[in-house]
Amino acid sequence: MIRAIYLDIDGTLRDEIRGISQRTKAALKHCQMTGIQIAVCTGRSPACVQDDVLALNLDGVISGGGCYIYYQGKTIFSKHFPKETVQQFLTFAKENPIGISIETAQKLYMNSMMADFYHADAHKKYAGYSDLEIRELLRSNKLAYNDTLALYQYGTDFIHKVCVIGPKTSIDTLRDYMKGRVQIVQNQPWAEKWYLECLPVGCSKGTAIKQLNHLLHIPQESSIGFGDGGNDIDLLRATGVRVAVAGGSPQLLRWADSVCEPPAQDGVCKELFRRKILSPEFERSVSYGYG
């Protein structure tokens, strides 16, 4: 019997353009009413979790890729890089042609190269939308891409995530230099460049799920996980039932027990119904659409 549901946000629970469907909202509420614990599990920092996700009032929020665990409004875990490690990343970025972003629970700092890269990627992702519409989509997704690295205060801001992008040779050098000092959660090509995402050692979506399951006395086999990206592999591996979203990372599919539709097609809701976690009565009564 399923006692816990863990959900990645972007591309899994939530469509980046349309948000969360009414059907999915109702499905999750119904599951909570039957006693199932539900938590989102995202790489976003706590301050960047979207308002419509927070409005669901789920039981838990795992954010920062596993660096923060909140359960019923209380912080039960948080972890950050040592100051020296952050400084090593920044020094490398000054000396090499790479983009870099560093994250705290409340703020995101990045250099101009990373800001330009993210802006270009957003325009590619939202091709066909006007500049004004793209700005609104970024705002609703709590994304801001500006050169703000000079505002970072060494020793005051506690950093839990570092992302870098650039030539593969530079990224490989950085990865080898930081080996053993960071947890690498993504290391892959992205738009003709190479992308590296790092967390403090021991942090991942999977380890956070295991911690929360342990706290709630829920065995792994009684949990189900949904994800779409390469950084969701640990999420799926930590749950008993593993569901990948169609169109997501090919690497994720090898770990999945099944594949569901994307969020714009109510994939999470449909999978819960197929697995009889939702009742036929729910299926007949639920409304459709967004808003």
Task: Describe what this molecule looks like in 3D.
This protein has 291 residues and is of the alpha/beta class. It folds into 2 domains: 4-79 and 203-285, 3-Layer(aba) Sandwich (Rossmann fold), CATH 3.40.50.1000; 83-199, Hypothetical Protein, Haloacid Dehalogenase-like Hydrolase, Chain: A, domain 2 (2-Layer Sandwich). Helix content is 34%, strand content 22%. It is built from 11 helices and 13 strands. It has helices spanning 22-33, 51-54, 83-95, 112-125, 131-140, 168-178, 205-216, 233-237, 250-253, 267-274, 280-285; strands at 4-7, 37-41, 60-63, 68-71, 74-78, 99-103, 108-110, 161-166, 183-190, 193-199, 223-227, 241-245, 258-260. The strands form 2 sheets. An 8-stranded mixed β-sheet has the order 5-4-3-2-1-11-12-13. A 5-stranded antiparallel β-sheet has the order 7-6-8-10-9. β2, α2 and β3 form a beta-alpha-beta unit. The longest helix is centred in the middle third of the chain and has 14 residues, at 112-125. The chain is globular and about 60 Å long.
Q: Which residues form runs of ≥5 with pLDDT under 50?
A: none
Total E-strand runs: 13
If you consult CATH, what is the topology of the largest domain? Rossmann fold
**CATH A-level architecture of the largest domain:** 3-Layer(aba) Sandwich
The share of residues in helices is 25-40%
Number of helices: 11
- Content-based structural category: alpha/beta
Sheet with most strands: strand arrangement: 5-4-3-2-1-11-12-13
Task: Please state the average pLDDT score.
Answer: 94
SSE sequence, one letter per element: EHEHEEEHEEHHEHEEHEHEHEHH
